[in-house]
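Lecture notes, continued. The same structure-token format from the folding unit now serves as the input rather than the output. Read the line below as a description of shape only.
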């Protein structure tokens, strides 16, 4: 049986951990508000640029833009957006479960990772990572999205990949976020506008030139939106996980205090019994 000293040490240790998890929860909650606002505000822009892209593509069907080129699929790339840090519950493991069925046992798959956790997971298992991006999962910027989109587009134009998929975590609420896979390249202009019919536009100087400028912007917008969605999901998952850890620590402290009081009472009872027994022996 543990002594009262051991239990006191464990109670102190759990309280220290509880203070850390509580502070992490507060930090994540403060950052989540800003990240949630950015994620929600980016959606209308992304939807609009998809609508415009569908309209422009319908007016430039014979443009022959390399990002629209459909080839026989021999090499597939996955751009995976994950977290740089842990302590976010099942956030990373859920994302990996979304990816693994598509990449396990395949030699024609190339990986591009954003986030240390995803990079380290695949690196330890011997996967080849063509590109890696780290250090911004909680606070992504548009410049980072531009760099990622350009790298992917350049590799696709050079023929290194025949199709590219984007894997990220879609944010719905702090406790509801779902890993999602979308096809990034080649750009499917037939489904870019959803169920609505594309609007007709008058192009100046030409639909082909407008499309050439719009397609890279479209990729940058989609990647940036995915980064914002993933950042909000990561912070929401971390806030929830740290809240649960804080509650569990409080529950553990209560059990330890109860056990401490039981042992202390047993020691007091034993000492009283020894005193009474000694007094009776002296009579």
């Amino acid at each position: 049986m543990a002594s009262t000293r051991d239990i006191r040490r464990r109670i102190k240790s759990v309280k220290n951990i509880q203070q850390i998890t509580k502070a992490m929860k507060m930090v994540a909650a403060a950052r989540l508000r800003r990240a949630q606002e950015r994620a929600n505000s980016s959606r209308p822009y992304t939807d609009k640029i998809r609508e415009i892209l569908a309209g422009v593509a319908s007016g430039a069907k014979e443009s022959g833009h390399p990002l629209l080129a459909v080839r026989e699929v021999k090499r597939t790339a996955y751009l995976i957006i994950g977290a740089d840090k842990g302590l976010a519950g099942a956030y990373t493991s859920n994302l990996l479960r979304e990816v693994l069925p598509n990449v396990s046992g395949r030699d024609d798959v190339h990986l591009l990772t954003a986030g240390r956790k995803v990079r380290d997971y695949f690196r330890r298992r011997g996967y080849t990572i063509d590109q890696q991006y780290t250090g911004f999962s909680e606070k992504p910027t548009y410049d980072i999205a531009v760099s990622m989109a350009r790298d992917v587009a350049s590799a696709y134009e050079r023929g290194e990949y025949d199709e590219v998929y984007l894997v990220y975590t879609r944010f719905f609420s702090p406790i509801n976020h779902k890993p999602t896979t979308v096809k990034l390249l080649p750009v499917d202009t037939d489904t870019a506008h959803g169920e609505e019919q594309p609007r007709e536009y008058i192009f100046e100087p030409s639909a082909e030139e407008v499309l050439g400028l719009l397609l890279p912007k479209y990729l940058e917008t989609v990647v940036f939106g995915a980064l914002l969605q993933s950042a909000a999901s990561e912070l929401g998952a971390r806030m929830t996980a740290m809240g649960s850890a804080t509650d569990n620590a409080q529950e553990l402290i209560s059990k330890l205090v109860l056990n401490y009081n039981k042992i202390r009472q047993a020691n007091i009872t034993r000492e009283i019994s020894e005193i009474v027994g000694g007094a009776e022996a002296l009579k």
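Point for the exam: Residues 36-241 form a domain with the Pyruvate Kinase; Chain: A, domain 1 fold (CATH 3.40.1380.10).
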